[in-house]
Amino acid sequence: MKAMLAMKVMKAMMKKPSASGKTDYSVLTEASIMKLQGKSDTEIQQFLDGLSDPVQNLLWKKFQRSRQMQGTDDEYRGAVNGCGSKKKAQCLLKVWLKCGGDCKDALWSQAHTQLTRTSSSSQQASWRPLQYMLTYMGPKELKARVTAGTVLMRASPSDQRFPEFQEVTHSTTETTSKENVKRVEHRSNASGQSSKHCPDWVAP
What is the pLDDT of residue 120? Predict the structure, then answer.
């Protein structure tokens, strides 16, 4: 019984371990990586899945050296910083492979910009006097909006003989890693209850 057990242990020790991926480091040569240029996402993922852990570790180091040599490492670190950093890093690694190891490729720049773009929105409400609103949208539109309740109206806190109208400005800001900012503003009107009675002297 002990002899049979010893034999099984010996066989297990002599058995070659199942390959969990490629162990040939030649797949990471410059020529090999250039061959991945233009490959599909599926093909890139299959390539990565076929690499063993030691080869993958070497790939990440090679990726880092490439960024440092091409002067894009700081931009890369800014792109992957924050929430989801691991997923962002993996995404840029795949893009780097699809670019054949070129961090200056247009595809790399596009992916980097998409990852580092942030968007924020805000709104600000201001109460405007009658003359301002008449200049901005005209008497017909102002009267129609007040009647529909899409423009709120109130008596002026400083002098209740005169009305004020609420103008809401919505702002959307998109910022990329290159600090290119696009700001889009449009005015709309807050929802809510207000007086729908527009003074007759607003109409033309």
Answer: 52
